[in-house]
Design goal:
Helices cover 21% and strands 27% of the residues. The chain contains 8 helices and 17 strands. Bound molecules: zinc ion (2 copies).
Length: 332
Amino acid sequence: MGTVRAMRISRAGQALELEEASVPMLGEHQVRLKVLACGVCRTDLHLVDGELPQASYPVTPGHEIVGHVLEVGKAVTELSTGDRVGVPWLGWTCGKCFYCKSGLENLCDKACFTGCTLDGGYAEGAVADARYCLAIPARYSDEEAAPLLCAGLIGYRAYRAAGEGRNLGLYGFGASAHILAQIARSEGRHVFAFVRPGDTQAQRFAMELGATWAGGSDELPPELLDCAIIFAPVGALVPAALAATRKAGRVICAGIHMSDIPEFPYSLLWGERSIASVANLTRADGHEFMRLAARVQLRPNVETFSLSQANEALSRLRHGALQGAAVLIPTG
Ligand SMILES: [Zn+2]
Ligand SMILES: [Zn+2]
C-alpha cells in the first residue's frame, strides 16, 4: 500500500484539493496504472456542482485516463506490464441484469463509473478493471489520446444514434464536437456548428475544422438539418434544434445533465421528428471507436495543465475559454 498525489473532491460544491490518496490493494481483474494523461470532461463539472445523483464523495474525478500498466492482478489476461491503455467512463458492470444481457451494458443498473463512483485519473496513479480498458492506437500521443476516451467515443455513440444524412448540426462546439466534426468531414458530411451567441472565436474554430456554417445557437442554419446532437447542457436547445431539423430528423442529447427543457409547441416534434438521449458507453462502442481512430487520423486540439491546475482547467471549461479539450499531465 502506497499513496499517490491526487486532486480530489470531498463534497459537491467544493473545489478540488491536492491530497495524498491511498492506493487500494489490486483486485484480481485490476491493473495498477501510472497516469500519463487525463482528459477534463464537462461531466467533471457536473460532479463538482453536485448534479450527478449517482456520484459518491469523496472521489478523484477523471474518466479519460491514458496510463501505463505497472502491475496486473492475478486473473488479468488482457494486459501486461508496460502496456499503454485507456480507461473510459464505464468502469464495471454486473453482467447479470436485463440491460447487461441485452447488449446495453451502458445502462446496467449496478454500473460503476470511473471518476464518479470509482476513483479516476486526476492523480499520478490509478487502478482500473482490465476488462474495461481500451487499446489506444499508437499514432496518438498521450495527451491527444485522452479526449478520445469520452469526448470522442461517447460523442461517437451520439453520432451513430443521430443517424445518416448529409447535414449534421452540433450544438456546443467543445471537446466532443470538435472531434466529431473531423469524423463527419471524413465521411463527406456537412457540419453546422452552433455556439454561444457572440462567441466568434468558437465560430472561427469550427470553420477551421471544416464546418460548412457556424453561428449562434439562437440562429437558424441556412439549410435544414438531417439530425442534430446537443452537447451543451442547456434544455432550451432541444426546441431550438427541433426547429432547425427536417421531418423525420433526430435530435440527440449527449450530455449526462441538462437544464429543464422548456415547454414547446407540438408542431416542432410533429413530422416524425424524434428526441433521444445517449447515456454512457458499452465496451463494444469503445473498441469500435478506437478502430475508427486508428483508421482516420483525428487531431484533437488539446491544452495541457499540471495536476495542481485541475481547478483552473475546470474553470476554463465552465467559462467556454477552451478550444477543444483540456488534459491534465499528472507527472509532467
Ligand atoms: Zn448489469
Ligand atoms: Zn466524459
